[in-house]
Model the fold of this input.
Amino acid sequence: ALYRAKNEGRNRACIYDAEMDAALSNRKLLEGDLREAIASGGLRVAYQPIVDKSGEKIMGVEALCRWTHPVRGDVSPAEFIALAEHSGCIIELGALVLRQACLDGNAWPQLSLAVNVSPLQFRRADFVDQVERILKETGFDPARLELELTESVLLGNVDSAEAAMLRLKALGVRIALDDFGTDYSSLLYLRRYPFDKLKIDRSFVLSIEKAADAAAIVHAIVGLGRGLGMKVTAEGVETADQHLFLRAAGVHFMQGYRFGAAMPAADIARRLDEEAAPHPAGKPTALAS
Ligand code: C2E
Ligand code: MG
Ligand code: MG
Done:
């Protein structure tokens, strides 16, 4: 009950009940299984294509962690990443994903590789050293690596976050601000920190066709990003209409089910081969740039 009250915010009281106990022990069990999966190679990394504005050409991929639990089946990243953060094993998980992504990414020299970084990872004093070590060990070109941070990384952590970002940039690594529009969306942060890219959260993309305000916000974010010299990626692009709107709005890159969900490394290699081969007759013509 104490944990529940703390989790749900200030000035709350929660009464203990048996269901709560079950949920807690359930979480403890899952946490143990996650540790086991991390230690025994039970996690996988999948890759989602990131395409240019025409939607035709893969420019990069985002590495996304996957866990198939032996009994429960696929666990959603939202659930197990939160669990890993809560229990501290996000540090090992993050290192594991980065290393695997660099190893797989070596096979696609033409693509950039985006990897998510948890605030808990980023705040560690040895984070940049760890990135540097993994780049060396895997031989991955730092100029092709893009680390995705969220704004919560920056909260109350202004100077050390800036120092870490500058060190990463000195290595040649690029930095993207993920899920833009969902957190604080502080303009001060955008000016102060050397982000190379903004990723517009998919909640805005989802609402483009339904709500005029979402469309206006997307236009404003693109203008802001471009004005500050950043690249802009739209996340969660699912329909042709969204694609057309975003392209007209000036988005540089797009990511979403319209262009492919996260897939195993081998499927990315296949996509690249197909892209390099001449289009067979009868293939639907894609949107011209
Ligand atoms: P994210 O970094 O914003 O990743 C994009 C999420 O949107 C992915 O969810 C992706 O599968 C989903 N997505 C992509 N296109 C579409 C679309 O067109 N429609 C819809 N409905 N969804 C789409 P996923 O894989 O479930 O990951 C969720 C979040 O978990 C990620 O959000 C990221 O914050 C976190 N995550 C995943 N892998 C890692 C990791 O290795 N480390 C850390 N720290 N976080 C990770
Ligand atoms: Mg991301
Ligand atoms: Mg995102």
